[in-house]
Design goal:
By secondary structure, the protein is of the alpha+beta class. It has a single domain, classed as Sufe protein. Chain: A. A hairpin with a 2-residue loop joins strand 1 and strand 2. The longest helix has 24 residues. It starts with a helix and ends with a helix. The mean pLDDT is 93.
Length: 139
């Protein structure tokens, strides 16, 4: 699936829920479905700066495809990072760098997050793009 196809799928899932309490619950459920990070990956070098909650993000590259894994100590933040992973993981560095992540606005996520969570979302996204940039330079 392309990044845009995945985004459209997420938009469809969230549009089925009108109440934001239900959407928060969906986010929490998505975060809980996320595979936990191994303890060895929960270290300072994988911790994302700019998040109020603790978020660890790991990126691996194999045959030009980047895969992300992450964990957070906050339920909603864990759901947010799982959404980003769902959209961006499994793509090339260039696809990630070129992606227009319109789903964030479309599902109303940006306007329903507290300022600190919005900053955290931007920090997670920035870190994922930095990994993509680093891998694209290596190629």
């Amino acid at each position: 699936m392309t990044i845009n196809e995945i985004q459209d799928e997420i938009i469809a899932e969230f549009s089925e829920l009108e109440d934001w309490m239900d959407r928060y619950q969906l986010l929490i459920d998505m975060g809980n479905e996320q595979e936990p990070l191994p303890e060895k990956d929960k270290n300072e070098s994988n911790l994302i700066d700019g998040c109020q909650s603790r978020v660890w993000l790991v990126c691996n590259e194999q045959n030009g495809i980047l895969t992300f894994s992450a964990e957070s100590d906050a339920l909603i933040v864990k759901g947010i990072v799982s959404l980003l992973i769902r959209v961006l993981s499994g793509h090339t560095a260039q696809e990630i760098l070129d992606a227009d992540l319109y789903f964030i606005k479309e599902i109303g996520l940006a306007e329903h997050l507290s300022p600190t969570r919005s900053n955290g979302l931007l920090a997670m996204l920035k870190q994922m793009r930095m990994y993509a940039m680093a891998y694209s330079v290596k190629q």
